[in-house]
């Protein structure tokens, strides 16, 4: 028995192969059954002719319910009408498990129903396409940083203190004390950069986001490069080059998936260097022109980011936000200390922030003041201050949320479909 995956059946034209998968759909017309068999690598039409199979096998397919698991043997035939270019002329069928009353039917289901059935919804062609784009994004991220000499550097998930503000921490009992699920691997990434020069952290991050938006999850995955001897300009160069690489890879490798998702390819094709770089102050001017009444110092929320990103045909880098709106570790701009040496990269088509980062405060005294003024526990940051006491150097980095990036590349309305099992304010299950 020659078992092959659907995506590789074309390599066996004219030969007899066996495909293992699930029945995605079935259509019958008297002497013929058309079985759509999905195996995770693709879907192939298996044509069963009454004349060519044993009577029992033909009868088996008569009432076979959707999502039954199967082993189908047949001859690979070229078929220019088939999406994958081939079909299977069935010679034998084995049912591994007969399904019954599959809850997800071709009719429209509400998103709450689909999320409740996420363990099954993942079998749909759209969700399969999204998960493959996600895998490609992750692969491209690692490929980029590995290729640029960044060391993969895993940060802890259980941490003693906040990185991105104290309002959205998840607390976990940790023996006799309290630990927090990490909000970002950055602080540990900084230790890595001062030990190895260039590192990247990749892992899950957690934020108890109490707001329901289409951009926020409570558990999401972040890729965070950090480099020593670098400032904001080098950081922006890196973010730009990195993002171009990721988008190009997905366009090259996942074109078929993007077609399944009916993603307009034109905007992604425009993601080339250079990205426009504007200051926060310039961003306010753009927003004022669009009717937003914002004073200097105001944070840019989802609506503002959407409006801004719609003003450019490619990602835009907004740098030098007011220090007050940013985290404690940001270095102030020596040319204008009201501004932080930070950058947000906003994706086009209204997607908004996909990357946030900047240059870190590298002076121990200044940093200590910031930790105090943000009301953070100094004793938890002794090690972090050490990085400024023993060979401090200018250093910078950023974080990209994988789910935001996937939502943008797939053209999705909401990040909840970009991760196998989304965690949000009102969703902990399945
Ligand atoms: O801008 P943020 O909060 O930056 C940091 O965490 C830095 N410590 C990163 C660094 O410099 N190493 O988050 C970075 C990115 C955002 O741009 C966004 O893509 C994503 O993480 N993100 C979220 N994605 C989904 N759900 C959420 N609740 C997110 N919060 C941030
Ligand atoms: Mg941010």
Q: Strand-residue fraction?
A: 25-35%
CATH class of the largest domain: Alpha Beta
Summarize model confidence as the mean pLDDT. Answer: 96
| Strand order of the biggest β-sheet | 6-10-11-18-17-16-13-12
Helix content: 25-40%
User: What is the terminal-to-terminal distance?
Assistant: 37 Å
The second-level CATH architecture of the largest domain is 2-Layer Sandwich
What is the CATH fold-level name of the largest domain? BirA Bifunctional Protein, domain 2
Low-confidence segments, ≥5 residues, pLDDT <50? none
Strand-pairing-aware structural class: alpha+beta
* Ions and ligands: 4-amino-1,4-dioxobutan-2-aminium adenosine-5'-monophosphate, magnesium ion
Overall geometry: elongated
What is the domain tally?
2
Report on the architecture of this protein.
The protein has helices at 55-62, 111-116, 118-121, 125-147, 186-196, 232-253, 255-260, 265-269, 280-289, 302-309, 364-373, 382-389, 402-410, and strands at 16-29, 32-38, 43-49, 69-78, 86-97, 151-152, 158-159, 171-174, 177-181, 198-206, 219-228, 277-279, 316-319, 332-333, 336-340, 342-347, 352-359, 395-401. The protein has 430 residues and is of the alpha+beta class. It has 2 domains: 6-97, Nucleic acid-binding proteins (OB fold (Dihydrolipoamide Acetyltransferase, E2P)); 118-417, BirA Bifunctional Protein, domain 2 (2-Layer Sandwich). An 8-stranded mixed sheet has the order 6-10-11-18-17-16-13-12. Helix 4 (125-147) crosses helix 13 (402-410). The longest helix has 23 residues, at 125-147. 4-amino-1,4-dioxobutan-2-aminium adenosine-5'-monophosphate is lined by residues 163-164, 184, 186, 207, 209, 216-217, 220, 222, 224, 353-357, 397-401, 403-404, 415.
